[in-house]
Structure formats: C-alpha cells, structure tokens
Amino acid sequence: VFIFNSKYCKQMDGCAVGSPLAPVLADIFMNRLLEDRIGREERDCLNITFVSRSNCESFFLTVFCGWCVDDALAVFDNEDDADRFLAYLGSLHPSIGFACDG
Fold this sequence. Notes:
The chain has 102 residues and is an alpha+beta fold.
C-alpha cells in the first residue's frame, strides 16, 4: 500500500517501486520471456526468429537487437518491420507494454 496524490493505492502486480530486488527480478523475467522464444543460428543477432505461444514463427531481420534488464533495443531498416516487431513484443505478456522511439 502506498499514497499517490493523497490517495491510498494498492499495487496488484510486480515488485515494489524502488525495491533493490526489482531490477534483478525484471532482468530474470525479461530474459526468460525473450530467450525462450528466440531461435538463432549460432547466436546471430541480426537474423532473429521468434516463436509465439502458438508455436508460429515470426521472422525479423534487424540491424541490431539486444536488451539489458527491462530495456530492449532493436534497430530495423524500415518502419513496417519495427511496427510488426513492436506488435509481436506486445503480444508476449499481458502485463508488459513496449513503446517505440523513432
């Protein structure tokens, strides 16, 4: 329970804001979420095939793709591929949202 704008709020999901454990848990969660769905030839960071929950493959040709803790960076040659990748990431978990800076 915490107070925000003079109102009592109860956090229903995730770690407490500011908890020293939050970055560690976020890193573990995001690695598990993404690594379980990536198929790469010899850890090639340019040609990535993601597998969805329904075992359908989605192929993305990136200029670069990587992540650290709860931040991801993917660079594409065109905006359509970036939008498609963003939609794919957004479909992976109902409690996680991704945004695109272009």
